[in-house]
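Hi R.,

Quick one: here's the Histidine phosphatase family protein sequence you asked about.
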Amino acid sequence: MSTHTIVHLVRHGEVHNPEGVLYGRLPDFHLSELGRKMAERVAESFAGKDIAAVVSSPLERAQETAAPVAAAFDLPIHIDERLIETANYFEGKTFGVGDGSLRRPTHWPKLWNPFRPSWGEPYVKVAQRMLDAAAAARDLAPGHEIVCVSHQLPIWIARQRIEGNRLWHDPRKRQCGLASVTSIRYEGEKIRGLSYSEPAADLVPIKPGKGFSAGA
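And here's the predicted structure, written out as tokens:
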């Protein structure tokens, strides 16, 4: 008989980022006060579940999100480099529609191919490393549930691959909110299902006219 295992891919909580930079893999970006509340809410959402292992991206915001879960189940936090945020040319810069970035000639060579994408780590590479990390987490505790804390884009790309969708996409349409949980259900080594929840949705601040804040 197949072993039923669930790997929960958790996006970290809100980050303290007053300058509004794309922080990517930069060090020393920590959860805000609200982000810490989100992390606590995620831990509460796992109460009564069979969490047998906690794994995190090496970045501080992910480990800080994992900490309440690990504490609640008296577990160590394992670090898996494959759960890290994607590499990005615009790391450390402000970059968005309306800030003039698209008009800067120095940026144009990095914007020519949105399908790869040309500005960062290839989507196919992100998908493979995330699925490898999820499989490694599954093998830590077969028959149980494992929490892996990562980042929005890697989690979304993993979901796109699992669901058989194209990897290039409109970032505004990602279903991967702050402190959200994307759960992969395995039977043995086969993926048999996927579900999504937002245990901290009511904590996400609403910007006038823009709906829920996407965070970073």
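Residues 208-216 have pLDDT under 50 and may be disordered.

Cheers,
M.
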